[in-house]
Amino acid sequence: MSKPVNLVTEHPKTSITTIVVVGAGYVGLSNAILLAQAHLNTEVTLYDIDKQKIALLQQQQSPLQDADICYYLTHKALHLKATNTPFPAEQPRGIYQDADVVIIATPTNYDVASGNFDTSSVEDSITAIRGQNSQVPIVIKSTIPIGFSEEMRQKFDANILFMPEFLREGQALYDNLNPSRIIMGASDNQKNFATALMALYQRASEKDNITQLLMPPTEAEAVKLFANSYLATRIAFFNELDSFAESSHLNSQLIITGVGLDPRIGEHYNNPSFGYGGYCLPKDTQQLKANYAGIPANLIHAVVDANNTRKRFIARQIIAKKPNSVGIYRLSMKKDADNFRDSAVLDVITLLKQHGVSVTIYEPAITAALFEECCVISDLAAFKQQNDVIVANRWHDELLEVADKVYSRDVFGYS
Predict the structure, then answer these.
(1) What pLDDT, in 10s, does the model give residues 162-215?
(2) Nearest to 352 by CA among 324, 332, 384
(3) Handedness of CA 6, 11, 15, 16 (dihedral sign)
(4) Are 399 and 381 in contact (CB under 8 A)?
């Protein structure tokens, strides 16, 4: 296949009813619930080594902060089983033995030392699957380096595909139910199966006539990394605009609004922040940067550098206020999310501490007394009182009574 093929009108010839999903993070759990809906006549087994996650799921409780996931677990008819072993007592032959497809959605963090994603969890999963079932199609949904699927196809067998995901943490199931597109990376001889799987995702969604694209796995891998790197580029652009506006005592919101009214630019994904972070953008931009080794390029490198510059700028702005004590209000990147892995706020904290600033943290998701050598204050009222500057990447109305203390670049949420 040399070009994407739109498959909306094609009809699958392969039946997919028994599904195993490996990994109960945002990607794996949202996909498992999406495909386990009763009207699809499917049976889904969700496997994760995290016993606590699985215990919660077995009680129909979500281990993640996602409103739709919580609702579907408690209110929808789902053919979903959760297990922390590949050989559960009720299925002694193994969870992969009779599967029609296995979807891998394990984490692949970026390893700075190697300059690549750590794909060991994906490779270990493929090895375990093939130990039970030598034929079942394996679909990788983990984010991986460009060319990884082909490497796995050569190492193991040809029946490995790649299906990129485009989900937001905290809204992962919603984005699965309302996808912008369904993309499958597959070879020509996998076309029937790829078509059937995309048709299953179409039936599982709440949208009609979703654009479906079939392309080689390597191109599908590139779509994922370039899409997220473009989003990171957009964030970096509006953050730099905001840095200029703040430094020049200009109204950032007015400038951004005026810029966004150009239909070629749009009024979306334009709210300044302390920098991009979270599960995907930091590692995806770093990985794409690594994939450019030996290829002339400036922009991707500049985006990574711009994000670091933004965090240093934010720290300098806070330090310039000469605070006695700085309180960090929430570590998560987004409202209504519980993840603060690779959050830009963490780097801001490090920079503040390097300049001798006293820092405390308010983060309900943390139960320990210390985090990053900073005191964690669990009482919000005490937190507000003890700090003369409160730093909030995203505005929350519970900060209204101390609005004069708050430093935030959330120009569209701040009031």
Answers:
(1) 999 999 888 999 999 999 999 999 999 999 999 999 999 999 999 999 999 999
(2) 324
(3) positive
(4) no
Q: What is the CATH number of domain 226-407?
A: 3.40.50.720
Query: What's the farthest any 2 CA atoms get from each other in the chain?
Result: 68
Instruction: State both tokens at 305.
Output: 């550098």
**Rg, Å, the chain Cα set:** 23
pLDDT over threshold 80, residue 337? no
- Contact (CB, 8 A) for 340 and 307: no
What confidence score (pLDDT) does residue 336 get?
A: 58
Strands 5-6, 80-83: pairing kind:
unpaired
Q: What angle do CA 294, 300, 302 make, to 5 degrees?
A: 110
Q: Output the CA torsion 289→294→295→301 (10° steps).
A: 30
CB within 8 Å of 183: residues ≥ 6 apart: 163, 164, 212, 213, 215, 220, 223
Measured CA to CA, the distance from residue 235 to residue 194 in angstroms comes to 33
What Cα–Cα distance (Å) separates residue 367 from each residue in 22, 320, 348, 379, 406? 29, 31, 21, 12, 24
pTM over the 0.70 mark:
yes
When pLDDT is averaged across residues 338-349 and rounded to a whole number, the result is 84
Q: Which residue has the tokens 């909030």?
A: 392
Average pLDDT over the chain reads 92
**pLDDT at position 398:** 95
Where in the sequence numbering do the catalytic residues fall?
A: 280
- The reply to whether CATH 3.40.50.720 applies to domain 5-215 is yes
| Tens-digit pLDDT profile for residues 77-130 | 999 999 999 998 877 789 999 999 999 999 998 777 777 789 999 999 999 999
E strand or H helix that includes residue 342 = none
Q: Are strands 370-371 and 160-162 parallel, antiparallel or unpaired?
A: unpaired
- Token pair 């983060």 is found at 363
- CA quadruple 74, 77, 78, 82: dihedral, nearest 10: 40
For range 31-38, the mean pLDDT? 98
Q: List where CATH 3.40.50.720 sits in the chain.
A: 5-215, 226-407
Bridge partners of 324? none
- Beta pairing class for 138-140 and 160-162: parallel
- Closest by CA position to 32, among listed 41, 40, 20: 20
- Give mean pLDDT, residues 215-231: 95
Tokens representing residue 108 in the block: 């692949």
